[in-house]
Write a structure and sequence with these properties.
Helix 5 packs antiparallel against helix 10 (about 250-280). The protein is about 80% helix and about 0% strand. The protein has about 300 residues and is mainly alpha-helical. It has 11 helices and no strands.
Length: about 300
């Protein structure tokens, strides 16, 4: 969550740099800025890994690396991979996680590339667009810290319920944004986009805890890969459906797109509410021990 928070805040930083210096000489400044920023971050990473903290992290990682069997042939490895994929796809929680990645999260990825076109069709001023861009990263980081922190703060006995409630809260914040867009798209565009960014950050921060609980550690990379492949498919559909007519202007350009995404999010919100009710039932606390939610190793 910490890494993702810095990633979200980096979005705000780049938006501020773009608004302050980028508009004058785009191509030349972009090349210089990217070279300087990449070099600075590379130097910072080098210093971190050369420090005592970095060396200890690398040593602990190396000492905990599982040993491999040199006699295991490629056929056995392939069968093992196929068995792992079947186990992941058939997991009880996989449909729910897939719905989150293909619904609200895929919409958010598409929104980050579409919102400026929507703002332009709504005749939003350049100053307001800059404020929106700078607020998206801050709102996303806020959602990661608040919802992720609240889920972590849940007592061990109610850890799964805490996760489910925070996930439902993130989807509810998403839906508040859709409600604002339906009410008055032009007036509440900034608030709606920031609400979507808060919900996106919160849901994305909660995903690792569920993956860590329901899947073996060795399969986390494969699970993430499958989920993001599903996200890529849905992201492409969202992007394709968001293409407005060239002569279109006003709220009609993206109204149907927002409504469709809102319906998808509403389905996920109702699903999340049902999961909260199940997690709050008597006996659910004992069941979470079997699922692994009560382990001290589970955290956001």
């Amino acid at each position: 969550a910490g890494v993702l928070c810095f990633l979200a805040l980096g979005t705000t930083l780049h938006a501020a740099v773009y608004a302050r210096w980028f508009l004058g000489d785009p191509l030349t400044f972009l090349l210089r800025y990217q070279l300087a920023y990449t070099g600075l971050m590379g130097l910072l990473g080098f210093l971190v890994f050369k420090s005592s903290v970095g060396r200890r992290a690398l040593c602990s990682r190396a000492s905990g690396k599982p040993s491999t069997d040199p006699e295991q042939g490629p056929d056995e490895k392939q069968r093992g991979l196929l068995a792992r994929m079947r186990s992941i796809i058939g997991a009880r929680e996989m449909p729910w996680l897939t719905a989150l990645f293909m619904g609200p999260l895929a919409y958010s990825f598409s929104l980050f590339g579409v919102w400026s076109i929507c703002a332009e069709r709504l005749a939003v001023s350049l100053a307001e667009q800059t404020r929106i861009a700078m607020g998206l990263g801050i709102a996303s980081a806020f959602g990661r810290v608040i919802l992720g922190g609240l889920a972590d703060a849940a007592p061990k006995r109610y850890r799964r319920l805490g996760w489910e409630l925070c996930c439902a809260a993130g989807l509810l914040i998403f839906h508040l944004g859709f409600a604002l867009l339906e009410w008055d798209q032009r007036r509440y565009l900034s608030l709606a986009l920031w609400a979507h960014s808060v919900g996106y950050g919160g849901v994305l921060a909660l995903a690792p805890a569920a993956l860590r609980t329901y899947f073996p550690s060795k399969d986390l990379g494969l699970v993430y890969g499958l989920l993001y492949q599903c996200l890529a498919v849905s992201f492409t559909l969202f992007n394709r459906s968001a293409e407005p007519v060239l002569t279109c202007s006003g709220r009609e350009c993206f109204q149907r797109w927002f409504r469709t995404a809102g319906v998808v999010n509403l389905v996920c919100l109702l699903w999340a509410t049902a999961r909260c009710l199940r997690a709050a039932q008597p006996g659910a606390q004992e069941k979470q021990k079997l699922d692994g939610w009560a382990s001290d190793e589970v955290g956001i």
